[in-house]
């Protein structure tokens, strides 16, 4: 599985360490909250809302340089809109991967 990285964050920050840290702090704050809302909606079988949550989360996936994972999230979002849970395990493995990575920052 590909690993999260700060390549895009470094590009966005342009070497500004304070701005880079602010971006990381926002991700570290928002990601767990958005992840929990996704799980709540999925477990409640609110697939449309879960798809909306995946849509939000895929931006974090992209910012963390996970190109293949982003494609999985796109496909999973579409599946959820069709009430199809294919790719659920793959998507949730991505979430776990990001969670572990953010704990190291």
UniProtKB/TrEMBL annotation:
InterPro entries in the record: HPT_dom_sf
Source organism, top-level taxon: Bacteria
Any one GO biological process: phosphorelay signal transduction system
SUPFAM superfamilies assigned to the protein according to its UniProt record, in alphabetical order: Histidine-containing phosphotransfer domain, HPT domain (SSF47226)
The name this protein goes by in its record: Hpt domain-containing protein
Organism in which the protein naturally occurs: Lacinutrix neustonica
């Amino acid at each position: 599985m590909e690993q999260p990285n700060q390549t895009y964050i470094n590009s966005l920050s342009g070497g500004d360490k304070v701005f880079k840290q602010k971006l990381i702090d926002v991700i570290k704050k928002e990601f767990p909250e958005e992840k929990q809302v996704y799980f709540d909606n999925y477990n409640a079988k609110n697939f449309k809302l879960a798809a909306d949550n995946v849509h939000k989360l895929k931006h974090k996936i992209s910012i963390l340089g996970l190109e293949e994972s982003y494609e999985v999230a796109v496909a999973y979002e579409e599946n959820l809109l069709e009430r199809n849970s294919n790719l659920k395990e793959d998507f949730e493995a991505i979430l776990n991967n990001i969670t572990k990575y953010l704990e190291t920052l």
